[in-house]
Design a protein that fits this description.
Shape: elongated
Strand content: under 5%
Distance between the termini: 74 Å
Number of strands: 0
Structural class: mainly alpha
Largest sheet: none
């Protein structure tokens, strides 16, 4: 096929029509476009999402949970549906390259300007999300967090994310108004070719366009969204996977660390296989609650998106209405998150030592837990580290797995009245070391098996002195 210049407007339209009809995609066995307009929450998929998150949240670090993919924030522009309809075969980079090749330099410049425009609302969105994650950490280690307070954080997050979507869609609308009929047909053809699994139909239409000196990763994300939003229908763009709401539990980080070898369904089956029927029912209760909330989430999200789509008609989008709808979406999503977190913590309180070992082994099967980066606030850092301990040393309960760590600093060693399964090694250690001093705890946290040979504690320890100081500072606050 020749370069783009000899092709007329009608040629782009003909290629797009053939691809959309599946006439070319069928040659490679690529999946045809599917109608996603009737998408409803699938209870089995939702159960799979909750079970896989149970593994990642209970065994991961806060840094794992804080990670978020570049395309997740303000995901109102249909790229998820585009990728699903392609059978997961397309990538943002390939779609963005072809999209940018269809644009004029002035239009690319308008898109590049968006990268700076979106920075302030993006930063506010990320900060609001991290506040929710910090509250979840507090919940995980037994500190007081109320549902109402958490839902307020969700409202702030939803409003910030909606404002980010407003900024992006307003600029997209301005670019869309400058597109020629031929450009619009070409963008439709690019979409159809990628969905049909035939990007080769467009690979030789243009040379790579000159790009401004900007963050290429951010430009790729914006360009891919521009293609999916301006060529998709409202029904198509309304599609949302069940893994998107309540994405505070670290599954994306695990998938990334595994080299994308993790599949949610496989992880879910392994997690559920470790649990008893009664334990699985704890997760099912959250699934049922989420299933009730999911339609309201989708309806309110669709109402927000209809407002954002006004930008494609040259309309100015009202910030006040955007914030109101975003807050409603955020509250629903926070309620779904709260239900899941509560179910996971209830489950954690019932796990046996063998089940805990099974969860840790399952995580290790995919990837080693990466160390967190340091924090300026040592006590906050200590809480984050302690979140790893509470998988076994769960707060505010007598457990058959490990004793509570509340009041551990200065407490008699191996003398918790609510725990009677201390190892012979630790009982022997207690005879010559009556109390847990800061020095003894520091030595033990550095390497439990070196400090107390024969201990049954399986944790390898915290090798970094700063980490030990931070967690000891936090442990000193527990009474």
């Amino acid at each position: 096929m020749q370069a783009a210049t000899p092709l007329r407007h009608s040629a782009f339209a003909a290629i797009a029509a053939a691809l959309m009809a599946g006439q070319l995609g069928a040659q490679t066995g690529a999946p045809a476009l599917r109608d996603l307009s009737d998408h409803r929450v699938d209870a089995a998929q939702l159960r799979s999402a909750v079970a896989s998150r149970t593994l990642t949240w209970l065994t991961g670090t806060p840094a794992n949970n804080d990670y978020i993919s570049v395309g997740r924030t303000a995901n109102f522009f249909g790229f998820v549906a585009l990728r699903v309809s392609s059978g997961q075969s397309l990538t943002r980079a390939d779609v963005a390259r072809d999209t940018l090749a269809a644009l004029e330099p002035e239009q690319i410049g308008m898109m590049a300007a968006l990268l700076d425009e979106q920075k302030p609302p993006h930063a506010r969105t990320q900060a609001a999300r991290l506040e929710m994650n910090r509250a979840l950490e507090q919940l995980r280690v037994g500190e007081g967090v109320t549902r109402d307070a958490f839902l307020k954080l969700g409202e702030a997050y939803g409003a910030a994310e909606a404002e980010l979507g407003r900024v992006i869609s307003q600029r997209f609308g301005q670019i869309f108004e400058t597109l020629s009929p031929e450009q619009r047909d070409r963008l439709a053809m690019i979409r159809a070719a990628h969905v049909a699994g035939r990007p080769d139909m467009i690979a030789d239409l243009d040379q790579d366009p000159p790009l401004p000196s900007v963050d290429r990763r951010a430009l790729v994300n914006v360009a891919a969204r521009f293609l999916s939003w301006t060529t998709g229908s409202p029904d198509f763009n309304d599609f949302e996977v069940v893994g998107k709401p309540s994405q505070h539990f670290g599954f994306v980080s695990l998938r990334l660390a595994s080299g994308h070898a993790v599949r949610r369904g496989a992880v879910s089956r392994e997690v559920l296989g470790l649990l008893t029927r009664d334990q699985r029912r704890l997760l099912d209760a959250a699934v049922a609650e989420n299933s009730e909330a999911f339609p309201a989430f989708l309806r309110t999200r669709a109402e927000l998106m209809r407002g954002l789509e006004g930008a494609l008609k040259g309309q100015a989008i009202t910030p006040e209405n955007t914030a109101r709808l975003g807050a409603e979406i955020g509250a629903i999503e926070a309620a779904m998150t709260w239900a899941q977190a509560g179910a996971m913590l209830s489950l954690r309180n019932t796990l046996s030592a063998e089940q805990l070992d099974g969860l840790l082994a399952l995580r290790a099967k995919y990837t080693a837990v990466a160390p967190d980066e340091g924090l300026r606030d040592p006590r906050a850092r200590g809480r984050q580290l302690f979140a790893q301990c509470v998988l076994c040393h769960a707060p505010a309960r007598a457990t058959a797995v490990a004793p509570s760590l509340a009041g551990i600093v200065g407490r008699e060693i191996a003398a918790d009245a609510d725990y009677d399964r201390y190892s012979p090694a630790l009982l022997g250690f207690a005879r010559s070391n009556p109390r847990w001093t800061i020095e003894l705890l520091d030595d033990f946290l550095h390497s439990p098996r070196s400090a107390v040979p024969g201990t049954t504690m399986g944790f390898d320890g915290f090798p970094a002195r700063g980490d030990r100081a931070a967690i000891l500072d936090y442990l000193s606050t527990l009474d």
